[in-house]
Each structure stands twice: as structure tokens, then as C-alpha cells.
Amino acid sequence: MATSRLLPQGRASIHLLAIAQLLGDHKHPGLEMCGCRTSVPSGKQNSVSQAAPASTKKGPPAAAGMPKGVPVAKQLASIKALRKGSDLEKAFATAALVYNNYADPESKLSKSETKSLLQSQFWHFIQGQENKPKYQEIISSLDEESENKINFEDFMIMLVSLTLMSDLLQEIRNVKTTK
Q1: Among 113, 162, 112, 164, which Cα is nearest to 136's?
Q2: Going from the N-terminus, what domains does the chain have, and what CATH number goes with each?
Q3: Which of 38, 50, 165, 179 is the most buried (most CB within 10 A)?
């Protein structure tokens, strides 16, 4: 999965630069904020979860492997600059904090950890997507060389890609916005 196939690199880099500061990437000169480090997927197709029938929808998989510690809501509340932040700013800060809670000391996730994070924290967006070619491509890239690491920028681009293909996005678009 190449970054350029998911989003134009320049746009992603500009918008994610501020979020990366929450993670401290600016303090680690070896961590680049451009270019994808994930491998190009093969024809192998795997799914994160099986689609549940509409009448027996299950919740997200158990939070096995979830980091223990301070809840994200408390972490978010501790960021002075966001106390009067917009919903959008808080949403992106929450994504950054969740990533940071799972990431290693170098602010990276292995591909297997990324897949686990998606299964536990992004389940409602990925359920029912198993037959979509782009979804299969993304998940295949996580299954290949699962010990390889993913940086924050690549993770966010992956989240945006999964969101754009999700059936849940249409439900979100249909939410009534006026009284």
C-alpha cells in the first residue's frame, strides 16, 4: 500500500504535521513525516473480521492487547491548547492519542499491532468491508511482514482510506444536522 495511492502525499503531510507534534515526532529526527514505509501488497486476501448478519450484529472484538493506563478522555482533557478546541481538533487529537498509546517508544506500530488496533478501535468502520478490493489490499499489506513498522502519518492515511470506503460513512452523512 503506497501512500500516494491513498491520498496525495502533500495534502496528508500538511494536515498531519500538527497532529504529529502531539506524538513527539518532531523530537525524533530519524522519524520521517513523509513517504510510506509499508510494503506493496501481494494478491493475498485476508479479512480482519467476518461480516455479521444484520440481526445478530456483534460488538467490537474484546479489547485484548489494549494498553492499560490513563483513559484517552483524561489525556485529551490534560492538553491545555484543546480545552476550548473544536470538535474536529479534539477528534484528531483523540486519534493521535490512541495511536500514541499503542505505539512503541519510537512512535511506531508494527503491522500486526496496527491490525489489532483497527480490530479493537475501528471495528464499526471496518465491519462489512471484507469483500471490497481496496480493503483487502490494505489488510493484505498489514499481513505481509507483520513485524515491519508503520509511522503515524501512514496510520492516519490508512484510517482516512478505511473511513472513505466504509458503509458507516453514508450513515454519518445522513445524520440530521438541523432541527
Answers
A1: 162
A2: 8-33+69-171 (1.10.238.10)
A3: 38
